[in-house]
Write a structure and sequence with these properties.
Shape: elongated
Number of strands: 4
Strand content: 15-25%
CATH superfamily of the largest domain: Lrp/AsnC effector binding domain/regulation of amino acid metabolism (RAM) domain
Largest sheet: 4 strands, antiparallel
Helix content: 25-40%
CATH architecture of the largest domain: 2-Layer Sandwich
Number of domains: 2
Radius of gyration: 21 Å
Order of helices and strands: HHHEHEEHE
CATH class of the largest domain: Alpha Beta
CATH topology of the largest domain: Alpha-Beta Plaits
């Protein structure tokens, strides 16, 4: 069970993963060692899965972001597994989801340019034997950046 202090700690770390035990202790009215032990427990219990740096795609020459919907013509564990292997091997695919509805998969991709996106779609995805349809949407602008998860704090903890 998470208490309100745990939840506040998770909210704080989503905003700034660089917070030290000292910083967390001050924010949560705990000693640095208590704050550090809470963080370690939340890591060990799997509430905190990673600390990552968010990079600027445009600074790295990744000028095209797109969402790509993929529909398989043949379904079955071996086809899904083969497609998952393909997706996991492609560095330009930064996340992938399985879906309900028309599309079986939604891929979020970053490419250097339109030519690279074209090659990914036509030479990689459509070349896969199970894929029958690919539809892409190129991102024009991102209105809201990927944000923290909505952690619900008890009213008195806010």
């Amino acid at each position: 069970m998470l208490d309100s202090t745990d939840l506040r700690l998770l909210v704080a770390l989503q905003k700034d993963a660089h917070l030290t035990a000292q910083d967390l202790g001050e924010m949560l009215n705990l000693s640095p060692s208590q704050a550090g032990r809470r963080r370690q427990r939340l890591e060990a219990e799997g509430y905190i899965s990673a600390y990552v740096a968010r990079l600027a795609p445009d600074r790295l020459g990744l000028t095209i972001q797109a969402f790509v919907q993929v529909q398989l013509g043949t379904h079955g564990p071996e086809h899904s597994s083969a497609f998952a292997t393909l997706v996991n091997a492609r560095e330009e695919v930064i996340s992938a989801w399985t879906l309900t509805g028309e599309a079986d998969y939604l891929l979020r991709v970053y490419c250097e340019d339109l030519g690279a996106l074209h090659r990914l779609i036509h030479e990689v995805l459509l070349a896969h034997p199970s894929v029958t349809r690919v539809q892409s949407q190129i991102v024009m602008d991102q209105l809201k950046r990927d944000g923290p998860l909505p952690v619900k704090l008890p009213v008195r903890a806010r």
